[in-house]
Amino acid sequence: MAAPPTSSFKSFQTNLTETKAHSTTTNGNPVSRGPSPNRGASIQDNEAIGSESVTQKSWLSEQGIDRSKWVMLRKLSHMRYQHENLDEITVFMRDFGMHVVKKTDTERWYSGYGPDQYVYYAREGPRKFLGGAFEVESYEDLEKAAEIHKDRLQTKGIEEIHSAPGGGHIVTITDPEGFPLNLIHGQTPTDPKQMPAKLIVNDESTKPRQRQFQRFQPGPAAVHKLGHFGLVSADFPALQKWYTQNFNIVPSDLLYVNLPSGERKEVALFAHLDRGQDLVDHHTIFLSTLTPDSSIPEPHVHHCSFEVHDFDTQALGHQWLAEKGYKNVWGVGRHILGSQIFDYWWDTSKFMVEHYADGDLVNEDTLVGYGPAGHEGLAVWGPDVPTEFLH
Ligand SMILES: [Fe+2]
Q1: What is the rounded CA–CA span in Å between residue 22 and residue 8?
Q2: Which of 180, 234, 327, 368 is most deeply packed, by most CB within 10 A?
Q3: pLDDT tens readout for residues 63-96
Q4: Distance 144 CA to ligand 1 centre (A)
Q5: Distance from the CA of 300 to the center of ligand 1, in angstroms?
Q6: Which intervals hold domain VOC (predicted)?
Q7: For residue 264, is it within any domain?
Q8: Residue 339 CA to ligand 1 centre (angstroms)
Q9: Based on the structure, what is the number of domains in the chain?
């Protein structure tokens, strides 16, 4: 079926964050609008971002970023956490859609069905965030990171990974706020795993599903891969500068508040990995600003997010986690920036984890979008944003 003409979706041409912010009346009720055959459309990236934007090239030059200094990240690989009770977190992670691929008395590695050996690592000990782990382009990138950040090393330079599935080498450094950042290289690839079957979907005019019935089985939403993680920082400008100057981390969206002086202050960054023309996830890392009303008064990890197959998978996974008595934070809903269908949960140590499906892809030609920060800009549909999400 041909895509709907974009002229019927004029409202999408302004920044969607803004559109959502202005779609309620003064008493908070939605503005009344007529019925439409379709409330959504897939819009070309730069048309959807709109005029409040700059090219990535001009943003990088404005910031005085020298690409030759970058340690090149190839992709996000896995998350690392420390938990008091490994058995408890293992039951949760299995209900969340992961498999244990290796266990020792004090460590566990959990996989999805994607190309990574593991997407989550847990170590026994007091509750602690141990950072995200990126796979770097080459061994030289590990050497470069260990040299440039020698004052920030947590590992003894480059260390060989002995115990983890797939092996490889690791360098762990701390960022300016003290968050660990893990860089790995040389992990052996996994054997291809079975991918889920794609559902055949009938709509009003195209009905390819003929004498085939939709049938589902209750159960966890199987995790494919790690998609992104986010940090809440005390000094957002410094942290943004550090990540974007030292690594191929480039903004997809920057959010701002307007100060009483009329000045704009940037408070959040959604960033992708610069892989040139290759398509990458809209955001792999995000940074936001600690606010005085945050329930955690110091810099902390906000959440990490794992990809699942589709909306039905996500809804089945939501039902499974709810029936097991876990605590939902927010979801199911649809984000605006990144477009993902989201579903956030507290794990058994009260770290936030997310299932997502249907996220946006960008490349070096996608514009950097600017938009006002605000709770109302977080989702186009879904439950109201709970205050505990803004922790
Ligand atoms: Fe997320």
Answers
A1: 19
A2: 368
A3: 999 999 999 999 999 999 999 999 999 999 999 9
A4: 30
A5: 15
A6: 75-186
A7: yes
A8: 10
A9: 1
Q: What separation in Å is there between the alpha carbon of 329 and the centre of ligand 1?
A: 12
Find the 353 Cα to ligand 1 centroid distance in Å.
8
Ligand 1: centre distance to CA 284 (Å): 9
Q: How many Å lie between the centroid of ligand 1 and the Cα of residue 116?
A: 20
> What's the 32 CA to ligand 1 centre distance in angstroms?
30
Determine the pLDDT at residue 31.
Answer: 62
Q: Which residue's entry shows tokens 């605006």?
A: 336
Q: By C-alpha distance, which of 382, 294, 390 is closest to 20?
A: 382
Which residues in the chain show pLDDT less than 50?
1-22
C-alpha of residue 268 to centroid of ligand 1, in Å = 13
Residues in the chain: 391
Nearest to 382 by CA among 344, 330, 339: 330
CATH number of residue 286's parent domain:
3.10.180.10
Assess whether the previous peptide bond of 332 is cis (omega < 30° from 0): yes
